[in-house]
UniProtKB/TrEMBL annotation:
Family: Belongs to the FliD family.
Organism: Proteiniclasticum ruminis
Complex formation: Homopentamer.
GO cellular component, one term: bacterial-type flagellum hook
TM region positions: none
Chief location: secreted
Record-given protein name: Flagellar hook-associated protein 2
């Protein structure tokens, strides 16, 4: 085993070598700081891309024709209406005399069941079950069947037969899946008694289903369902409760401008958020704050160009052959300050939509005589795409940062290896120095003792 006495003679120990290496490693600190800066800048550009994509997600709603053709129905309690974009405008008075109900067969008591729906009934036989217009399904009963398993067998073919079973007070209760006057049909062989044994024949009670009866603007209508799609075109009437005699609901179908308003407001909010973020990234900072407030992408020419161009594009006039609306200010969107923040007055937009919705729609998106998409949305999208697409400016920026970061990592690894070797060199060199000084001290001691001996011998001879 070797013992390291480094520093015991020269005074240069591991602590002094560590201090020496700290000076040698200063370039490593600088490289690490440079790498951190590049990673921060790359992440900042990725954040810019995310915000630009969010901006387009907000504005692209305004290129969808459904946003502008949306209709709404207001009013109604016992009856309501569900609209589509093609629903006709108008006022509809709806009076509900009767809701549609389902046909039911309430079975009689099943003697063999007693009070336990899980008890085997010991019955055998078959019967067929369906409602009008549905396929008849055969239900086979075996000795081990209980009231519960029989209900399960009926329900297993409900989709085909149109009948569903439930158990109430150990009785089988059959219900039509659909409303209306459709009867539940139950049939058995001529010599079979299985239906009587299950309480589905002589002791059963039949409650006939009813059709819905109502009036729309004085026109009497009868339908099998409480959800009616073929009375007012492209519109569903939903019946929920019968009216008292002489009462009715008044429902108005009109254009729904709220979707356009929400879309414009969503764009304005996201634009303001994006521009604020960009401004923060471009802050130059000042000597008074020690540079702490300097933006991550301060002085970046590409980001400055993005900020300036977006601000100009949002506020400038458009040349559009399909609309008289030339800029967003005519739709209630205007700048608040010199930084380009926007404000939105929904009343101006609503006024334009009531005046001529097609003009508003064409401002955001339309096609020119050559069939090319024109308008505010394509213009903004084209510019955003030049930055955020897979071949855009931001991709080029982040790829460049990634290459530089990889190169710095290689430099860091190579430099760290050199520092490891240099530290080993220092330890070896100073260890050898200690050994040399120790040997020199030993030789000096021997020489001194020899000289002393010679001096003593010379003195005794005198």
């Amino acid at each position: 085993m070797s013992i390291n006495f480094m520093g015991s003679y020269s005074g240069i120990d591991q602590t002094m070598i560590d201090q020496l290496m700290a000076v040698e490693k200063r370039p490593l600190v600088q490289m690490s700081e440079r790498k951190t800066t590049m990673e921060t800048q790359k992440n900042a550009w990725n954040d810019v891309r995310t915000r630009l994509n969010n901006l387009f997600e907000k504005i692209k709603v305004l290129q969808n024709s459904d946003t502008f053709s949306s209709m709404k129905a207001t009013g109604g309690e016992s009856a309501t209406m569900t609209t589509s974009k093609n629903s006709p405008e108008g006022v509809y008075e709806i009076s509900v005399q009767q809701l549609a109900t389902k046909t039911s067969v309430i079975g009689g008591k099943i003697v063999e069941a007693s009070s336990d729906s899980t008890k085997a009934l010991g019955l055998t036989g078959t019967f067929k079950l369906n409602t009008e217009g549905k396929d008849a399904k055969e239900i086979e009963i075996v000795e081990t069947d209980t009231v519960r398993t029989i209900a399960e067998k009926i329900n297993a073919v409900s989709k085909e037969s149109g009948v569903r079973a439930s158990i109430i007070d150990n009785r089988l209760v059959l219900n039509n899946l659909e409303t209306g006057t459709k009867a539940i049909q139950i049939a058995e062989e001529a010599d079979s008694t299985i239906l009587n044994q299950l309480g589905l024949k002589d002791t059963s009670e039949v409650i006939e289903g009813k059709n819905a009866k109502f009036k729309v603007n004085g026109v009497s209508v009868e339908k099998e369902s409480n959800s009616v799609k073929d009375v007012v075109e492209y519109t569903t009437i939903n019946l929920t409760k019968a009216h008292a005699a002489g009462s009715s609901d008044t429902i108005t179908i009109s254009k729904d401008t709220s979707k356009v308003e929400e879309a414009v407001k969503g764009f304005v909010d996201q634009y303001n958020s994006t521009m604020t973020f960009i401004s923060d990234q471009l802050k130059a900072g000042s000597p008074d704050d020690g540079g702490d407030k300097r933006g991550t992408l301060a002085s970046d020419g590409s980001l400055m160009r993005l900020q300036s161009t977006l601000r100009t594009m949002v506020t400038s006039s458009l040349s559009n052959e399909n609309t008289a609306i030339k800029d967003l200010s005519q739709l209630g969107v205007s700048t608040v300050d010199r930084f380009g923040q926007l404000t939105f007055d929904a009343s101006k937009l609503k006024e334009k939509l009531e005046e001529d919705p097609v003009q508003v729609q064409n401002f955001f998106m339309s096609k020119n005589s050559e069939g090319k998409d024109i308008g505010f949305v394509p213009k903004i999208n084209s510019y955003i795409d030049s930055f955020s697409s897979s071949t855009g400016i931001i991709k080029g920026k982040t790829d460049s940062f990634e290459r530089s970061i990889k190169e710095v990592n290689k430099q860091v690894d190579a430099f760290a290896l050199r520092m490891e070797r240099k530290e080993k060199y220092y330890i070896s060199m100073f260890s050898k120095l200690d050994t040399a000084m120790m040997e020199a001290e030993s030789q000096m001691g021997w020489l001194t003792s020899q000289i002393s001996a010679l001096s003593a011998s010379s003195g005794s001879k005198k």
